[in-house]
Amino acid sequence: MPTIELALTCRCVEGGVNANMVKWFKTYLAPKFAEKMKAEGKNVTAKLVEFGGSDEALKEQYALDLKVGKGYDVFAFDGFWVPEFVAGGLLKPLDEIAGPEVKQWEGWGHISPGLQQILGYQGKLYGIASGTDVREIFYRKDLFAKAGIAEPWQPKSWAELLDTARKIKKALPDVTPLQLNAGTAMGEATTMQGYFMALLGAGIHMYDFEKGKWIAKSPAIADALNFYKTVYVDEKLGDARLQLLKDGRNQSFARFRDGKIAMLVEGDWFWRSVIATGEWKIPNRNEVVSFAKMPAKEPKKGYKGQDFVTISGGTGFVINPNTKYPKEAWALLSFMFSKEPLMAFQELEPRIRVRDDVPVIGDPVMTEMAKQLLGLTTVRPMLPEYPKISAEAQLLTERVVSGEMTPEKAMEAYAKAVTALVGPDKVIELK
Fold it and tell me: Given this model, what pLDDT does residue 392 score?
């Protein structure tokens, strides 16, 4: 019987980004999957194709491959890409690709409907999510100690956050106090880790879910942009140049590692992967790094009247509709997200998984993040136009932090762009 070799790809590199994924695949997943297939009388193996570029570059590669009927059998996928790819005819539901056995998978019973939809759209499932996440402020405890800032630290307003940044700037002039992602170069990381965290803190979402409209103008948008202006332009509490460089986000990781950035707003991936393994690893991470919740502008003034804000995304894996081996590809995907393989992954990288029978293990910090932040979280609009609106939000922040436009002019330009993208009937302006 000839051997079938499945190819799986993700943004992962041995010794680099998402190094734990590579280790899990090579040491556990591939050999265990081959054993399982052999026990079922099949010669099926899986190989990993590592990709070290940006999320945006990976997305572009997927689109190019799928449009010409090419690509790897199974690939990592960000949940917010799903509506756009479905609308473009590039993805198909799992059961259309692999057949009725998809719906019979035992795993669905351990994944809530909401978390199933991380890689879903309009009620159909296009993949399985690895997990969800939350966003917070990571800070260097050693730098705080040098600056005389007491711990545990938890700002209750933007004023308190900015006051901390000012104290660090005064005490440690060679350290950048605060990194809040901005600009187009950082792509979706700007929208999720930067703009959304400021916007939610100012009291609104990018989208009005009840009215089904995009918010084009609002005093809250102006507040968020003025917060950026204070940090990057007026008081230089952040490094504006870093926001404009192609590798600025990676440079921010390196500078945090080296003790040159004191506070960095990121997703929990930063804790469990970026500074836990690979080139940006901080060997004594648990001793020198801690986290705080992102405060609203003022208490009770955040999104939904919250004191603190966060937002969650989610990534996972989908099956290429062009695969020559749909049944085997589903066998690989469903095995990846069975309990035992995920528990093995948890030992390498504890995180918030989608299965209710796979707890966070061995990492009290991740457990605490989930406990403190999951109840406060929201999500991006799962709409095909979201990626284009997100790109406009990135440009919005870039115009402000670069000094190209005032917050007011940047918001005017954003409102025009969003209206042109979705039509005047799908936008609202808040007073």
Answer: 98
Q: Which domains, from first to last, does the chain contain?
A: 4-132+313-375 (3.40.190.10), 135-311+381-429 (3.40.190.10)
* Helix, strand, coil distribution of the chain in percent, nearest 5: 50, 20, 30
Which residue intervals of 108-187 are DSSP H helices? 113-116, 141-146, 158-171
- Weakly modelled stretches of the chain, pLDDT under 50: none
In angstroms, the first-to-last Cα distance of the chain is: 69
Nearest to 108 by CA among 330, 313, 272, 326: 330
pLDDT, residue 349, reads 93
Helix or strand holding residue 263 (H, E) = strand 261-267
Say which residues have a Cβ less than 8 Å from residue 219's Cβ, sequence separation at least 6.
430, 431
For tokens 């049944």, what's the residue? 327
Tokens (6 digits) for 192: 């999720």
Chain CA centroid to CA 253, Å:
15
Is 81 within 8 Å of 118 (Cβ atoms)? Answer: no
Nearest to 231 by CA among 164, 295, 178: 178
CB-based contacts of 421, cutoff 8 Å, min separation 6: 385, 388, 389, 392
pTM strictly above 0.85: yes
Whether 10 and 53 have beta carbons less than 8 Å apart is answered as: no
Residues 6+ apart with CB under 8 A from 51: 9, 10, 11, 12, 13, 58, 61
Instruction: Please give the structure tokens belonging to residue 93.
Output: 């539901």
Report the alpha-carbon distance of residue 218 to residue 231 in Å, rounded.
Answer: 20
Residues paired with residue 45 on neighbouring β-strands, in sequence order: 5
Cross-strand bridge partners of residue 111: 355
Per-residue burial over 242-258, b if 16 or more Cβ lie within 10 Å, else e, is bbbeeebbbbbbebbbe
d(CA 109, CA 138): 34
- Give the residue ranges of DSSP H helices in 141-284: 141-146, 158-171, 188-189, 196-202, 219-229, 248-257, 269
What's the pLDDT at 40?
A: 96
